[in-house]
């Protein structure tokens, strides 16, 4: 094995002493030699002198932006993994476009960090390089939760290719926004972005809408008409609700994807087009394939890259951020609308289950802005459905509530013993939920009917190892 791949020197460029110490202990115990630097200047000097195999680089440094440091570090042909607590879509895309190997969000999962470092060491190369100018505009998606960080990384990887992308997720999770983000950050950004909802157009018209038609091709075709493929020439075409295409249209679409040639209805010859295909659906396409409702070959052709958008209930930490984003977005329509939101309102929003996802949250904020009597959104300004439910919970939550009531009602027992009973049952419920969901705090909290922050506090108070 060459010295390049056996060099296990790690450089951590971060001004937080606790993070540097954690890397030193964790990686050092696993055979790595760890160096640290608190500024970009010291990090660049260490990179030149130490020649580390892998560098973990914080974006927010005291003397400069870590993103601006990426190009200089990459000149030394060392793998750079970006870390930050402030990762929006544009930050992640800039990092991965700026020759970073990968991206980690704080708080750092050290197991994931060493997996990335070992993988990069084995590959013996820099990854994630894309020869593009970073987009200056803000990404259309909002969120900093771990689930959204994974979405951002997949979008950044999609930007680096010209392959088809399948975007899945429940209704209202922002699938079209993800498609627009891929287009926005890609080399095709100056070309058209065209979207068509395959489920909203009658079956007898969808072929003409997609591929166009010639004059006289059918009754009512008085002129030649370009289809969505032709309109998206050079850019991206989003086929939304792709699962709703009829079997006959699936065959024709597959032919176009394989050949790159579009034949308008009634035309004698086809037209070769350069269009990147993005497809979206809220259905389980593999299940649709197994049921015979969707062609297997078309599924494989569309799902070269796959991005799944998490439902809002699985990323409650993003809800306050999204609520304030929608207030800023919607309030300018009427300058006298409120632009503040009370903590109690945020609590209700965070505890709601959001069956309609981000779209429902936006509508709820729009409603509150309309009915609020002053410049602050209060809990009573939210739609009744948000104030009354549905909220997460289940048998475990009901059992927990019943246990607390039972302890309070026990006659003739000391309060200390009551509390001990409650604590033991509560510990048992929480441990069972954590095991049930493999340590996933969001899912465990939802099952227990708790806010995730409440669950975290109980884990600390009860000294439960998460």
Secondary structure topology:
Blueprint: H1 3-6, E1 9-13, H2 17-28, E2 33-37, H3 40-50, E3 54-58, H4 66-74, E4 79-84, H5 89-97, E5 102-105, H6 110-123, H7 146-159, E6 165-168, H8 175-185, E7 193-197, H9 203-211, H10 228-231, E8 236-240, H11 247-259, E9 261-262, E10 271-272, E11 276-281, H12 285-290, H13 296-302, E12 305-308, H14 319-330, E13 340-341, H15 343-351, H16 357-371, E14 376-377, H17 384-388, H18 395-409, H19 415-436, H20 441-448, H21 452-461
Parallel strand pairs: 1-2, 1-3, 3-4, 4-5, 6-11, 6-12, 7-8, 8-11, 13-14
Antiparallel strand pairs: 9-10
Q: Could you explain the architecture of this structure?
A:
This protein is an alpha/beta fold and 466 residues long. The chain has four domains: 3-137, 3-Layer(aba) Sandwich (Rossmann fold), CATH 3.40.50; 161-308, 3-Layer(aba) Sandwich (Rossmann fold); 313-388, Helicase, Ruva Protein, domain 3 (Orthogonal Bundle); 395-461, Orthogonal Bundle (Arc Repressor Mutant, subunit A), CATH 1.10.10. Helices cover 47% and strands 12% of the residues. It has helices at 3-6, 17-28, 40-50, 66-74, 89-97, 110-123, 146-159, 175-185, 203-211, 228-231, 247-259, 285-290, 296-302, 319-330, 343-351, 357-371, 384-388, 395-409, 415-436, 441-448, 452-461; strands spanning 9-13, 33-37, 54-58, 79-84, 102-105, 165-168, 193-197, 236-240, 261-262, 271-272, 276-281, 305-308, 340-341, 376-377. The chain has a five-stranded parallel β-sheet, sandwiched between helices. α14 crosses α16 (357-371), α18 (395-409) packs antiparallel against α19 and α20 packs across α21 (452-461). Mean pLDDT is 81; it is low at 1-5, 125-139 and 393-415.
């Amino acid at each position: 094995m060459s010295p390049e791949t056996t060099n296990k020197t790690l450089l951590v460029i971060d001004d937080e002493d606790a993070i540097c110490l954690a890397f030193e202990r964790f990686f050092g115990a696993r055979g790595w030699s760890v160096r640290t630097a608190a500024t970009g200047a010291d990090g660049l000097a260490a990179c030149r002198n130490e020649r580390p195999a892998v560098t973990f680089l914080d974006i927010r440094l005291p003397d400069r932006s870590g993103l601006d440091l990426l190009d200089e570090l990459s000149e030394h042909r060392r793998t750079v993994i970006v870390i930050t607590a402030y990762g929006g879509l544009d930050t992640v895309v800039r990092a991965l476009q700026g020759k970073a190997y990968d991206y980690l969000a704080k708080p750092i999962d050290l197991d994931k960090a060493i997996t990335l470092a070992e993988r990069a060491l084995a590959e013996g190369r820099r990854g994630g390089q894309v020869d593009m100018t970073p987009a200056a505009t803000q990404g259309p998606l909002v969120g900093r939760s771990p689930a959204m960080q994974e979405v951002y990384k997949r979008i950044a990887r999609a930007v680096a290719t010209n392959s088809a992308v399948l975007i899945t997720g429940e209704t209202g999770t922002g699938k079209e926004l993800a498609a627009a983000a891929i287009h926005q950050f890609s080399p095709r950004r100056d070309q058209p972005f065209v979207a068509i909802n395959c489920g909203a157009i009658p079956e007898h018209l969808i072929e003409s809408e997609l591929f166009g038609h010639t004059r006289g091709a059918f009754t009512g075709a008085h002129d030649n008409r370009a289809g969505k493929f032709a309109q998206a020439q050079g850019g991206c075409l989003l086929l939304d609700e792709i699962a709703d295409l009829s079997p006959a249209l699936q065959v024709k679409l597959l032919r176009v994807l394989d050949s790159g040639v579009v034949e308008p209805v009634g035309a004698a010859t086809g037209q070769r087009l350069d269009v990147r295909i993005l497809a979206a659906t809220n259905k389980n396409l593999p299940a649709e394939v197994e049921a015979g409702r969707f062609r297997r070959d078309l599924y494989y052709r569309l799902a070269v890259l796959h991005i799944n958008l998490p439902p809002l209930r699985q990323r409650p930490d993003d809800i306050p951020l999204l609520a304030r984003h929608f207030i800023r977005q919607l309030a300018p329509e009427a300058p006298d609308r409120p632009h503040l939101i009370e903590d109690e309102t945020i609590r209700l929003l965070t505890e709601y289950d959001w069956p309609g996802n981000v779209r429902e949250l936006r509508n709820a904020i729009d409603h509150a802005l309309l009915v609020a009597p002053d410049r602050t959104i209060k809990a009573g300004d939210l739609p009744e459905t948000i104030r009354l439910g549905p909220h997460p919970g289940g048998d475990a939550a009901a059992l927990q509530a019943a246990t607390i009531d039972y302890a309070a009602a026990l006659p003739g027992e000391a309060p200390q013993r009551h509390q001990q009973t409650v604590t033991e049952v509560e510990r048992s419920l929480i441990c069972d939920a954590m095991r049930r969901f493999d340590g996933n705090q969001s899912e465990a909290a939802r099952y227990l009917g708790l806010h995730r922050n409440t669950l975290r506090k109980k884990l600390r108070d009860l000294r439960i190892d998460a």
